[in-house]
Amino acid sequence: MHNVAIIYIMPNRAQDWLKQAERDLQQAEDSRRGGWHEWACFIAQQAAEKAVKALHLRLGQEAWGHVVARLLQELPLSVPDALIEKARVLDTFYIPPRYPNSHPSGAPFEHYGPLQSGEAIQYAREILEFVRAQMA
Length: 136
Description:
CATH topology: Four Helix Bundle (Hemerythrin (Met), subunit A)
Strand content: under 5%
Largest sheet: none
Shape: elongated
Structural class: mainly alpha
């Protein structure tokens, strides 16, 4: 009998993650236009998270977790401090827009408006632009 080693090469899924991040950002914009500001904030955070994970994959790394600021800091390249600060803002939109017990009272939608969703979308857009430039 011969011992045969079979090696499976996993495809790099970076482009899939980036495409989904772009679609998530579009959904955030649609949610904002529709007045669903809590969802716009959450989906903007998701777009940024998926984009940064795409960059990790492109660089041959695995990335785990949902903290966009940390994911940016773990990249093996220089990331502007201002971008990390914007990611910190987005990270505050991971749980509170979805769960009523994240606020002292009121449903999540009562705590988010156009100011928050506009900021979240802008910051996510900047992170996607950074990722696109790094992946180009």
